[in-house]
Structure formats: C-alpha cells, structure tokens
TrEMBL record:
The chain crosses the membrane at residues 309-333. The keyword Membrane applies. Residues 258-277, 365-386 have a biased composition (Pro residues). Residues 223-307, 335-386 are annotated as: Disordered. InterPro entries: NLR-like, TPR-like_helical_dom_sf. The keyword Nucleus does not apply. Pfam families: TPR_10, TPR_12. Signal peptide: none annotated. SUPFAM superfamilies: TPR-like. This is MalT-like TPR region domain-containing protein. It comes from the Bacteria.
Amino acid sequence: MSTGLAEVTARAYDLFEAGDLSAAQLLLNNALTAADTDPGNASSALAEAATLYSRVLVGLGEPHSARIWATFAYEAESRLNGPSHERAIRAAATLASVLHRIGNHADSAALYGAVIEGLTAQEGPESPQVLAAHADLATVEYARGECDIARARLAEAWDMTREAYGDAHPAGIRMLARLGAMERDCGHFTEAHQHLSHARELTRVYLEPDHPLVAQITSLSRAPANPHHNCGGPALTTAPADDEAYPGLQDLDGSPLDLPPAPGEAPPDRPQSPVPPDVAETWPPDETASRLPVHVPRQRRRRGRNQPAPLVTGALVAAVIGAVAVVVGLAAVDQGQDPDETAPPAASWPPPPNTTAPQASAPPTTAPRPAPPVRPAPAPAPRPAA
C-alpha cells in the first residue's frame, strides 16, 4: 500500500508541476478515498500524499476542503518526524496558507511564526525559504489590519532578498509587487506607484517576456485599490483569495518551499548594476553638460550693517569728483589761466550715476564760482596847499 501510494504521489506531483491540477486531483482522490484519516495511524507516504492533495485543492480554489487534508498532514508529519523536521515544516507552511485563505488569520500567523523559526534554525535567516515565509506572514498581518507591521516586514524581506540574491530573483520582484499593492490599499499612493513601477522595470530587464511574472505584475499594477480593506481596523470576516488581494499573483503564492531557485548569475547580456534599473538609462549624468540636471537656487549675499548702501556710495563718489574739479579750477585762476571753456561745468562731468534717489538725499555737487580778485583802489592825491 505505501509503495503504491508513493508512486501515485510521485505521478501526481509531476502533474502538479506541469499545471494539470485537475488530473492530479483525480489521481490523488482515488488513492485517498479509502485512507484512514486518523493522524495517529498515518504512514509517511500517506502524510506526503495528503500534503500534496491539500495544495492541489488550494490551487483549484477549494480551501475549505484543503483544510481537512492539510491539518491531517501536519499532525501526521509532526508525530512521525517531530515539529522541527523539514517535512513537518513544509506541512505547516501549507496549512498556514490554507488557514489564511479561509480567514483564520490568528492560527495562520502562529503557524508562519513556527515555520520561520524552524527554517531559520536549519538554513539561516537569509535563506530564500525564510524570506518567503516572512513575506507570507506579512500578507496575513496585512489581512488582519496590522498594516504598518506588515509593510515593514515585507519591505525588510524584499531588501534582504535583493541584497542576498540580486534584483533578478523572481521572489524579490514578487515581494516588491506585493509591497506596492499593500501601499496602494493603505492610501500610500506615491510609494505604491514607485514600487510597482520598479517591479515592472525589474521584470523587463531581468525576465524573459513570456515569464508568467511579467504579465502578473502588469495586471497587478493596473488593478485598483481594494475598497474593502480597512487599514488598522479589524480583520476581514473572510480572507480574500490571492487573485483578489493580489490580482495576477495567485500562481506564485502558497508554501515558501515552492519558490523558484535563485539564479546563479545574471544573464550575460543583462549584467548586474549597482544602480536601480529604473534610473540606469540616465546614470551616470553627462559630465560635459553645461547645465545642472536640477536648478539649485542660490541665496543672495546679504549686505553687512556697516556697509553703505549702493545709492549712497554713488552719491559720495560724485561729490568727491565735483570737489576735485572745483579745486582744479581755482588753481587755474590763481595762475592767471582761464579754465577750459570747452569743458562742461563740473556739476555735469562726469555724468552722475543713474539713480532714483531723491535729490534732497544727495549732497550738493556744485560750488559757487569764485569772485574775481579785488584790486586795491588808488590812494587819493593830496590836496595842494592853499
């Protein structure tokens, strides 16, 4: 029985990977119809078949039917191998995903916490499975109305995924798209637009055009905000399916152990760049450009308290020039020379600066012309004596 069930499970798994969920469901349903559903009597092969069957039912949109088999598989695997075994962790992740879909967010969050703890002990905090489990837990927290916690967790998971595996990792791109959808539902439209645009650009740069994530993120970017989301409020009565909460990402949700493997290196014609792809086309800036890319206003220099105003300075300069001209004229008269009659009066040369200052505020620039020298009158002749 166990050998035959293991072979059936292997064939069903191939159908599941190929996307033929209906054929996989039919095959497993026939094999599990007469199975003993007591976890205390379950074999390892039966527990493995039940885990796969619950995942197939989730893919077919039957989470309530999947909950029975997911619970059975988790209890059986925990009894057979212990709760920290890899198989038990995989079953716990599947059950957590099912509970999220039927609206049992509290138990789902507790199970995801156990999955994160178990996987971290086995693989380290930066393994793809641990980071994906954090992203799934953030989805549950978001459904419960714990939006600030959910967005912070998801942003941290995306940032760690990008640093550890690069921008080309499909799981990181999916996290970024999820983050943008959360921000849009919570009213953070600027951040949502930036993250969703960045996710689309990452798919364009690093993924093939026929990759399913390309069309899925495009559909997600065009979807409106969820009108039923109550940010910070109570949990929804029923958890929306992934195609409602994250339109287009339903094929990539589920157990964190289902993530695609991280690429070994970037494609040769698409090298990695430390600059985000959305600005790579305009970076670095052209050093020969004569203008700055952004206008930087410069603050005008303030005049010190002890510095004279420009208008007053111009008036003082004109007064000094006029006084010099007067002195030159006096010197010419003393020497018996007439000043140059062709020269304009000192009051108009050089021309005064073009100012709008009132005339009364400027000191006079002309002086009275000197009077001609007065010669002494001749003394009267003495009268002749009589």
